[in-house]
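Issue 218. Parser rejects a valid record. Input:
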Amino acid sequence: MDSEAAKTARESLDLAFHMSNILEMGLDRHTLSVLIALCDLGLNPEALVAVVKELQRETLSSMTLAPPPPPSS
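Output the parser choked on:
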């Protein structure tokens, strides 16, 4: 990838990350980059959204169901 293409890709990721933050999606740059790459490969964006939402829901559920740590002595 030449330097101009790399700059454009970085700017596009920055813009997508900024929009993600405004929408409070809870995605980090790396995750967003992977999702964009998967879309570029032809995966259905709506299916990816469903997967991300389910993973976030499972993560939140496991965090709320986790037993509290034992008290320290």
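Fixed in the parser; the record now loads. The two ends are 56 Å apart (CA to CA).
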